[in-house]
Amino acid sequence: MNGASDLKARQETFLRAILDEGAPLPEGWTNRQAAGMAVYRGNYRSALVGALENTFERTALYVGESAFKQASAHHAITHPPAGWTIDEVGAGFDATCEQLFANNPEVADLAWLEWSMLQVAIGPDVEPLGPQEFAAATGEFGDNEWMALRLEFQARSCGRIVETNLTGLWNALEDAAATERPDPRLAEPRGCLVWREGERPTFQLTEPEAVTAFTAMQEGATYGEVIVALAGNEPSPEQVQDAAMRAGALLGDWLKEGMIISLKA
Amino acid sequence: MTQHHDPIQPFGGFGLGLREVHYDDFLAGPEEPGVPVDFVEVISENYMVEGGRQLRILEQVRERYPVILHGVSMSIGSAGGLDTDHLDKLKRLEQRIDPLWVSDHLCWTRTSAHNSHDLLPMPLTESALAAVCANIEQAQNLLGRAMLFENPSSYLTFPEDEMTEWDFMTEMTRRTGCYLLLDVNNIYVSARNHGFEAEDYLAGLPLERVRQIHLAGHDPATPERDIIIDTHDREVADGVWDLYAKAMAMLPQPVATMIERDEHIPPLAELITELDRARGIAKRALVPA
């Protein structure tokens, strides 16, 4: 083994020993080195749990300190980070919560929202397309151009169908000392859209079809395809007309909220 | 290939780490006197983002104070080489901020599969030195400037070690042209943990390559744990102040001094008072006995 591959192997063994407390320590190590390794193991776990606590403040408050520490330790063990930014340890934490708090779907919804708000906060600073600019750009559009229209949304904006009164829960958890909490369950699933107003991340509960349409267009669907999807199977002319009206309303909302940054060719 | 970069000129200021709880202090209006520091240091990775409030605030702070970019994730000791995504984003930040200088740690943090997000110790061997120097050259060439590297605190040494940490750092600066960020608390912590004399460490370094000093607090050993831990969560300990005074007396050129606090961050006034203590020690060190 040459020097470089030897160093690589040693580093892999060292990191394995940090990640897995049951992993054997390198050959020839004494109690002194084992004591040092215990410090590195402690540092690793507390750094990841601390990063999760910082990112998911409201989720931690909602489930309580002990349950959150268990969930975050579980997540750190099952999702050891690979990227250079420690913030990435929060990726997939909503799925971990879905699994660990299966009877409380609001926990996963809340974790998803916190993660999404953080992500959109650090996205690129791009001026949104204003209603007047949009009107100028589409003023000469015929039916074909409208049907082929594609939109570019703010980077990192996102949506999800939720079962949770996220607005009520988010506001109630603003004050860590407040004990009053709303009923987290919604009577019907709703859509939740997350985007940025200037530098401020924000979200809104909306109709589920707003999220479905937003997600489809974010993934490249045309405006025409969204109308077709909203109209449903074998629609009547009236249903197509209604779908076009609803798509137009959604487009108006996205423009008003500053979620669209450009039209795509 | 080794490229030559402009030398980093000595700068004898006193500064603090920019932390979110102090943003308002650093961004106070022009009618306010401003924070009495000569520079601020930021954790580079916190600002290696595409946009948003954090980055805008850093740019506003940069308009008022010189900024040092101090990284924690370059993993300069990784046998598998550097993360080019990290380097590219650091380069972008460096171009945006125009810092006094860019620094990171003599350590490794990751393998190709996982990242510890901790400053892990290097084996002090010739092969580790070769890997570190190759990585430093890559980083410096990409950034187009010489960097500073900080001595880490460590909690274990390796049976295969072939040299002292100060010899390792001396050779590292000689081969790459990099400079040193001397963390006096880390020397104190490692000296206690590994049983060497902190003064030997100082005496063994190429002190003319030092451009900055870090001071911080640590968690002392306990009956249950015979290891001192670098925590950045409390005031600088008296023993570290003593070592700082010795270092300042030995350094042949002005260096920037900064106090690090990352946990239990007090109001800014308390840190300024602590920084004043550093100013006093530095001033006395410059007066011949």
From TrEMBL, chain A:
Pfam families: DUF2063
Keyword terms, alphabetized: DNA-binding
GO terms for MF: DNA binding
Top-level taxonomic group: Bacteria
Domain Putative DNA-binding: 10-93
Name of this chain's protein: DNA-binding domain-containing protein
TrEMBL record, chain B:
InterPro entries named among the record's database cross-references: MbnB/TglH/ChrH
Pfam families named among the record's database cross-references: MbnB_TglH_ChrH (PF05114)
Transmembrane segments: none
NCBIfam families per UniProt: PRK05409.1
Membership in a protein family: Belongs to the UPF0276 family.
Name of the protein: UPF0276 protein IB285_00560
Phylogenetic lineage: Bacteria, Pseudomonadati, Pseudomonadota, Alphaproteobacteria, Sphingomonadales
